[in-house]
Amino acid sequence: MQRIINFILNNKNTLLYLFLFIISIFLTIQNNNYHQARYFNSANWLTGNIYDINASIRGYFNLKEEYEKLQEQNQRLQTLLFNTRPADTIEMDTSRLTYEVISARVVKNSYAEPDNYITLDRGESDSILQDMGVITSKGILGIVEKSSSGFASVQSILNSKSNINAKIQHTDYFGSLIWNQKDYRRVQLEDIPRLDPAPMKVGDTIVTGAMSSIFPENIPIGTIEDIELNQAGSSYMINVRLFNDMTSLRHVYIIRNRKRPEVLNLEKEVADDR
After folding, report:
1. CATH no. for residue 180?
2. Closest CA relative to residue 174, chosen from 186, 161, 191, 196
3. SS3 of 159, please?
């Protein structure tokens, strides 16, 4: 207490000056409309900026929640899209839909090896199993090869073992989509029969075919960059420039065909009866 008294006594002139200065400012604002307006405008500006900064901070921390909502909406739209045919009405009972779509995030990706793989943050606990298709909003990525409880390893389309049914869009000409291990931006469509005139041209779109139980039909793959005949001259070898940037993958969708086990069992029974 004595220290406080000593401080006041030692600084009484300074404290008196500050007290009088504050009183003079108050009286000036109270009796002068111009200064009063300037004071409140400054206060409003400061308050407004504080609220704006606060809103920006809150908005930043809400981005993840908003993104997850958008992912869920996109996932539902993709599911409806893959299960809707031109003449269909949309079936809202999801238990009766053929394809189920599950969102996932890429945690590891390779694209410069002869056999490339992609690791996803979804696994058996999310019902992710072998031979499920993986796509982005731009096109196909590959097929699930293995899964653990929390992760899945995807065989990329940039893999020497990759072989996916694909076709020329708006036609019934289909072949096998492979990778020649030369360029991560391009894959090859082979076994398109030689016809005159050719059923395609440079710039046409390549999509997934109907001969697959893994991918729905008509998922985008890329565009035709050039066309060559094979060595025998009986079919075409087509270079396809991918829609996906395989070096920059983050958010993907896993496709589960609920009817695939039934199809495989039927095919097995037919094969056993031969």
Report:
1. 2.40.10.340
2. 191
3. strand
